[in-house]
Amino acid sequence: MRRGLLLILSSPSGAGKSTLARRLMSWDRTIRFSVSATTRQPRPGEEDGREYYFRSREVFETMVKTGEMLEHAEVFGNLYGSPKGPVEAAMKEGRDTLFDIDWQGGQQIRNSSLGRDVVSIFVLPPSIAELESRLRGRAQDSDEVIAGRMAKSRDEISHWAEYDYVIVNRDIDTAFNELTTILQAERLKRDRQPDLSEFVRTLNTEFASR
Amino acid sequence: MRRGLLLILSSPSGAGKSTLARRLMSWDRTIRFSVSATTRQPRPGEEDGREYYFRSREVFETMVKTGEMLEHAEVFGNLYGSPKGPVEAAMKEGRDTLFDIDWQGGQQIRNSSLGRDVVSIFVLPPSIAELESRLRGRAQDSDEVIAGRMAKSRDEISHWAEYDYVIVNRDIDTAFNELTTILQAERLKRDRQPDLSEFVRTLNTEFASR
Question: How distant, in Å, are the alpha carbons of B41, B48, B51, B135 from that of B45?
């Protein structure tokens, strides 16, 4: 059975990453979404294990120390990270794991022991005007909050060149099509098809018995 | 403008490689097919520059010496090779070049100065019985000729693990779909989209002028 791969999707907030991630999960239901752990308080309606694993700072830090976090970072005073156990379990079942994380998480996973299983994709907005309008459109936030998000977006975009693939999200259907194309091609890579060795052995047996 | 890539398609004879190559050329008419040079005599109906560039051994060997051949090999007493000039011209125009060549040619191009622009795909037959039936089906050849081709096929298949991607041609439509998927994904790789640097610069200018 093939080993699952780690699909990392990063982008500035507002570039369409979450929509793409959600559509990918319905497109192929074998993909596992990596739910992050966080020390921040749950918001109304958020459920432990669905939006996030909500953990105390003490528990989170112990997980980091014992190597149970594939990556983690502090953002606005809260810790966020990707637990390693579920990822390894999915990989062994031949299932791919999708990570909706920022450049810091992407860097850490690429540099981890699972780095060779990573396929990383960066999603760029068509323009900054479009990015800002999407950020403004989805919530009634103050100019200050928007300015903070825009600064974070600029920082995120500065890391685009660290990714294997880049999708410019001018149109969500085209972008989604590009995303599935990348995933399908990656699954066709020789070193992601371990069953092939066995298959070629059967071909050779067939040659020998002609 | 992006730099064209070198798409190498190899497979044992009878695995469907030529059908795939032909379909790919109609699917995207910007792709350039690499016509090989050879020292063998033209067969009736073959045209210089279409099936092959027919060259004398003297001319061919001079081309090898002056570095005008990207790869070459001797097969059954005749020299075959891929002229470098047209490939470099296509790359500069942002056009991909398709090579329908064997493992020896594939190895040489991967190890050439253009190696980093190579995407290599190996096409496997679903079974040896199927391979033999396709070889027998297309011509009235003697058992001896068939046996020679089968031996060559076995040798070709032994190099499958040197390729980036592997397609098992169980069904030609599925195989073709996989081929175009690979090509489209490769074109989305960051380092094959040189225009992106300029695009991100415009995004940064937009950020700065907010």
Answer: 12, 10, 9, 21
Cβ of A165 within 8 Å of Cβ of B189? The answer is: yes
Using an 8 Å CB-CB cutoff, list chain A residues near B132: 210
Spatial distance between the Cα atoms of B17 and B27, rounded to a whole number of angstroms: 15
Instruction: Determine contact, residues B196/A166, Cβ cutoff 8 Å.
Output: yes
The token pair that represents B100 in the structure block:
């329908």
The residue of A150, A203, A209 whose CB has the most chain B CBs within 10 angstroms, and thus the best one to mutate to test that interface, is: A203
Where do the domains of chain B lie, and which CATH numbers do they carry?
6-201 (3.40.50.300)
Whole-angstrom Cα distance, residue A121 to residue A185? 13
CA distance B174 to A80: 41
Name residue, tokens 């810790």. Answer: A79
Q: Give the residue on A whose Cα is nearest the Cα of B165.
A: A189
Instruction: Judge whether A6 and A118 are in contact, CB under 8 Å.
Output: yes
Q: How many CB atoms lie within 10 A of CB B61?
A: 15
> Among candidates B186, B157, B168, which has minimal Cα distance to A195?
B168
Of A161, A185, A197, the CB nearest to B181: A185
Please give the pLDDT value at position A195. Answer: 87
Helix A128-137 vs helix A143-157: angle between axes, to the nearest 10 degrees?
140
Asked if B190 and A163 come within 8 Å (Cβ–Cβ), the reply is: yes
Report the relative pairing of strands A78-83 and A69-75 from DSSP bridges.
antiparallel
φ and ψ at residue A165, rounded to 5 degrees: -125, 150
Asked if the Cβ–Cβ distance from A210 to B150 is below 8 Å, we say yes
Q: What is the ipTM of this complex?
A: 0.86
- What confidence tens digit (pLDDT) does each residue in B68-113 have? 999 999 988 999 999 999 999 999 999 999 999 999 999 999 999 8
Q: Determine the Cα–Cα distance for residues A166 and A189; give it in Å rounded to an integer.
A: 19
Confidence of residue B43 (pLDDT cuts 50, 70, 90): very high
Residue A32 token pair: 């596992």
A127, A181, A184, best to mutate vs chain B, most B CBs in 10 Å: A181
Angstroms from B185 CA to nearest CA on chain A? 5
Distance in angstroms (rounded) separating the CA atoms of residues B126 and A208: 16
Residues of A in contact with B125 (CB under 8 A): 203
